[in-house]
Design goal:
The chain is mostly helical. It contains eleven helices and four strands, in the order ααβαβββαααααααα. The protein is elongated.
């Protein structure tokens, strides 16, 4: 169903996948509404389980406009203040051309070559090697890089990283990631309330009814357990969807960088350097998917990984872009192109277009 050929076909197929994944958030939101309604009914009266389930369904049918309004309000707040929140969470600060002329020149050359508006440049005061792009509308995109990245990467490698982040902006990946993070935040917020505040909203003590034995009661506790299980599954599924969206887009961003720079070797070399020093202790877990490589303290794998492994990304660059995975020497890690082996320096020269354009 999703078979695609060529870079732009892959981009189209990836967008279709993203639509399906985001639709999954809507389904999870309905499940979350049902769970909250079920808990409310169980706390109101200890009725039979089937009665509580039926009432919860009615509550969802009647209350979905309120839930939709709450989600819309959440989105409005995130839309207006998302960049401030991201900058605060990551420690990104704006930088002027005078403060970072090398960074500005490389980004400006890439943007001018393709007629792309130049995003705002920001610096993260961290010795780790990492970068990310953010923003959801034209004129408000930004690219943030760490001081460690500036110090350790040569011009060709830094240009490759900037090309990677520009591709995220060109493909609207930053928009999708912000929306996915907002959705995931809704589930995380409700999950925290339910599992950390056991007295929310009225305390887990269903109202006693002297006539319940005649009508048959005792379903409240089972209803609460079912609701908590659905909430836990919804929270977990929302995180997995967000991670899946992130993983599928990193390969395309690497490909887009090669298309912009015509230098797959520089992208491979940059990934290898970043892989060795990507960890950023202060970055919140919900922000990891934004970065070029996961800044997590512990390695991630499988469905819980925010990024495909660097080995897989390098293998794709070698297979489809003709790149070379050259070993890094102590001198080549210094960040100065003048100390790189001749074959790496020569790789910055223009090359014929490959399968990715």
């Amino acid at each position: 169903m999703f078979q695609a050929y060529g870079l732009y076909s892959h981009i189209s197929a990836n967008r279709l996948r993203t639509i399906f994944l985001l639709a999954g958030f809507v389904v999870l939101l309905v499940a979350l509404m049902f769970s909250v309604s079920l808990i409310f009914e169980a706390l109101s009266e200890d009725a039979p389980l089937e009665v509580l389930l039926a009432r919860a369904v009615v509550d969802v049918k009647q209350g979905w406009p309120i839930a939709l309004g709450g989600a819309a309000l959440w989105f409005c707040i995130a839309f207006l203040f998302h960049q401030s929140m991201i900058d605060y969470a990551t420690g990104s600060e704006g930088v002027s051309r005078k403060e970072a002329p090398r960074l500005y020149n490389l980004l400006e050359n890439l943007c001018i070559s393709r007629g792309i508006p130049i995003p705002t440049l920001k610096i993260i005061d961290d010795e780790a090697l990492n970068a990310f792009a953010s923003g959801i509308r034209d004129g408000h995109y930004s690219v943030s890089v760490t001081r460690g990245l500036l110090a350790r990467l040569n011009d060709a490698e830094l240009e490759a990283v900037l090309g990677h982040e520009l591709t995220h902006i060109r493909n609207r990946d930053t928009q999708v990631m912000v929306v996915a993070t907002i959705f995931a935040g809704i589930f995380a917020f409700v999950g925290d309330l339910m599992f950390r505040s056991w007295n929310f909203p009225f305390g887990f003590s269903p109202r006693k009814d002297d006539s319940r034995e005649e009508r048959g009661g005792g379903g409240a506790m089972f209803a609460i357990l079912i609701a908590l299980l659905v909430i836990a599954l919804s929270c977990g599924a929302s995180v997995l969807i967000r991670f899946a969206i992130s993983r599928t887009r990193e390969f395309l961003a690497d490909a887009g960088s090669v298309e912009l720079t015509k230098n797959p070797d520089a992208m491979i070399s940059a990934l290898r350097k970043i892989e060795a020093q990507a960890t950023m202790e202060q970055i919140p877990s919900r922000m990891r998917a934004f970065f070029i490589e996961s800044p997590a303290l512990l390695p991630e794998s499988g469905f819980f990984a925010t990024h495909p492994s660097v080995d897989k990304r390098v293998a794709a660059l070698i297979k489809f872009a003709g790149g070379r995975d050259l070993p890094l020497t102590p001198l080549s890690q210094s960040g100065s192109g003048a100390f790189l082996p001749p074959e790496v320096q020569s790789s910055a020269a223009p090359r014929e277009r490959g399968p990715w354009g």
